[in-house]
What we know:
Blueprint: E1 3-4, E2 7-8, H1 13-26, E3 59-65, E4 74-75, E5 84-85, E6 88-94, E7 98-110, E8 113-116, H2 130-133, E9 138-149, E10 155-162
Amino acid sequence: MGKRKGHDFDGHCVCDVVRTIKDIQDNAVSPIECEECTSCFNEPLGSLVSPTNEEPVDTRVFVLSNADGSPFHAFFSGQNEACVSIFFRVEEVFDNCCATLRVLIPGHCQDGGFCPVQLVSSNDRCCIDLRNVCQVDRFMASHDCITVDLKCFCAVQCIADVFLGICD
């Protein structure tokens, strides 16, 4: 068990990173600082955003990887066809490495608006099409959450700091 910037770690890195993301989100009132290396540990919330972006942020978007390296995915409601996302926001960490994650709707900007991106290929209803993942540049909060055991994942990658208007 180690310590980093005052955080106690339980020895499972994915759990530790998600717990740190939650702490950073909870302390989002700090001024933006520029960091040379992007990491899930970058503080404050907003440091994964372009330094010229002055919009507020309330969420650190991240993805989790399964043991085989594939992206973990969950379903969300409210859209047509396969409603699948690999993008999450941590809502709560509890019971020694369990977490409630909000499923985020992936999208891209088209003419200033939000257009959902279909992550599942049209011919395959179970696999994430990684080419579609590369189109994602926007996120919207869904009303769907999933509870996970963070010890089941091998990697976590932080994608962006964004404003979703989430009320705690």
